């Protein structure tokens, strides 16, 4: 007989929806928003076998993918080569994108784009149950347990046995990761002020195989045993893990000299980045003639000192920056909090009106002189 492979069926689902809304303040500010919701799921549908006694035998490999083998009495698995008990992951991906904008009497005040993303990856593992009997797993080559859950009265787990027995056959106890990722990004524009936000977290946890039973015969493998544990101080990790249900075998393995302990680094990341400053619009108003680089010529542009003063006042009031633009200006220097975006926008509009009035006054004066 060749290979025995119990594969899982993967089911993919997607869903998309849109929601909208608006509100208006008593003084006339109108805010509207549209949110696009995208959902995607990948779910595992494993093979399940329920019987009083279950026996699986293969001349080569036995492979299970998140399979559920539930025997009320005995469960016996024999592989001429390898016995591989794999885990398969369920995956969830949620994304929400919101576009928001505000206006007042037809004038745009601000707009923003916000993205919220959540991704969760959860492993489904192979279950080997021999509830009232013996769990037997024999192989000529390696045996791999990816987070496998085993429940039995007694166990007999041996690698490197049978007609194809290998002298380097190992038992590999491998952990499986659960991953949770969250991220929120937002870009806001308040006419003369802009802000970017990037917040999130990424967390991984490791789940080891568990063996729960009354009679726990030691694992047997001529090539030794390989065990994965989370990175960290060894004794502390073993003490913490072995106290969990089904993991007392870790204490037994620490007494053996044929165990290869592999440390697995897990992600525990958090971030919160924020950046804000003037938009490109105010900088474009800076008059090039304000800083002359040589003698004035007939083609040079002369800026009315009063107009120049108004422009500088606008930049200082709206942005809270010093004239050298090297960093935070008066606000930061005195340890004060810069004005809110609404105040900046109002000051900006007021300053524009002042500039327009100064320009018309100057033009009227010039026309009078010509006449």
Overview of the structural elements:
There is one protein chain. The chain has 371 residues and is α/β, with parallel strands linked by helices. The protein has 2 domains: 4-272, no CATH class; 280-370, no CATH class. Helices cover 18% and strands 50% of the residues. It has helices at residues 234-242, 249-253, 280-283, 305-319, 330-333, 341-370; strands spanning 4-6, 9-24, 29-45, 48-51, 54-58, 62-65, 68-71, 75-79, 83-86, 88-104, 107-124, 127-139, 143-146, 149-159, 171-174, 176-189, 193-207, 210-212, 215-216, 225-230, 259-264, 268-278. The strands form 3 sheets. Strands 4, 5, 7, 8, 12, 14, 18 and 19 form an 8-stranded parallel sheet that branches. The chain has a 7-stranded parallel sheet with strand order 1-6-9-13-15-20-21, with no helix packed on it. It has a 7-stranded antiparallel sheet with strand order 2-3-10-11-16-17-22. Strand 2 and strand 3 form a beta hairpin. The radius of gyration is 35 Å and the shape is elongated. The model is unreliable at 283-338 and 366-371 (pLDDT under 50).
Itemize the secondary structure elements and their pairings.
Elements: E1 4-6, E2 9-24, E3 29-45, E4 48-51, E5 54-58, E6 62-65, E7 68-71, E8 75-79, E9 83-86, E10 88-104, E11 107-124, E12 127-139, E13 143-146, E14 149-159, E15 171-174, E16 176-189, E17 193-207, E18 210-212, E19 215-216, E20 225-230, H1 234-242, H2 249-253, E21 259-264, E22 268-278, H3 280-283, H4 305-319, H5 330-333, H6 341-370
Parallel strand pairs: 1-6, 4-7, 5-8, 6-9, 7-12, 8-12, 9-13, 12-14, 13-15, 14-18, 14-19, 15-20, 20-21
Antiparallel strand pairs: 2-3, 3-10, 10-11, 11-16, 16-17, 17-22
Helix pairs in contact: 4-6
């Amino acid at each position: 007989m060749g290979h025995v492979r119990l594969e899982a069926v993967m089911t993919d689902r997607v869903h998309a929806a849109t929601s909208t809304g608006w509100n208006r303040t008593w003084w006339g500010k109108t805010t509207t928003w549209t949110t696009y919701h995208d959902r995607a799921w990948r779910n595992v549908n494993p093979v399940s076998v329920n019987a009083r006694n279950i026996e699986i035998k293969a001349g080569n490999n036995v492979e299970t993918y998140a399979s559920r083998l539930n025997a009320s009495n005995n469960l016996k698995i024999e592989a001429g080569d390898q016995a591989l008990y794999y885990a398969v992951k369920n995956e969830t991906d949620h994304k929400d994108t919101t576009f928001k904008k505000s206006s007042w009497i037809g004038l745009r005040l601000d707009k923003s784009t916000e993205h919220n993303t959540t991704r969760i990856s959860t492993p489904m593992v192979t279950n080997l149950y021999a509830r009232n009997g013996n769990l037997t797993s024999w192989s000529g080559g390696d045996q791999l347990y990816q987070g496998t859950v085993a429940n039995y009265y007694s166990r007999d787990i041996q690698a490197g046995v049978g007609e194809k027995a290998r002298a380097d056959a190992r038992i590999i106890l491998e952990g499986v990761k659960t991953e949770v990722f969250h991220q929120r990004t937002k870009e806001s524009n308040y006419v003369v002020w802009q802000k970017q936000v990037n917040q999130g977290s990424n967390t991984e946890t490791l789940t080891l195989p568990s063996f729960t039973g009354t009679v726990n015969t030691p694992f047997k493998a001529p090539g030794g045993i390989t065990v994965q544990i989370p990175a960290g101080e060894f004794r502390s990790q073993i003490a913490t893990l072995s106290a969990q249900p089904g993991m007392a075998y870790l204490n037994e393995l620490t007494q053996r000299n044929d165990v290869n302990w592999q440390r697995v680094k897990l992600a525990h990341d958090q971030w919160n980045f924020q950046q804000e400053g003037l938009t490109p619009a105010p900088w474009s108003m800076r008059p090039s003639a304000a800083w002359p680089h040589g003698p004035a010529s007939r083609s040079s542009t002369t800026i009315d000192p009063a107009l120049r003063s108004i422009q500088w006042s606008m930049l200082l009031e709206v942005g809270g920056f010093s004239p050298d633009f090297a960093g935070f200006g008066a606000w930061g220097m005195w340890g004060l909090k810069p004005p809110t975006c609404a105040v900046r926008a109002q000051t900006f509009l007021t300053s524009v009106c002042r500039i327009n009035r100064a320009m018309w006054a100057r033009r009227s004066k010039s026309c009078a002189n010509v006449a």
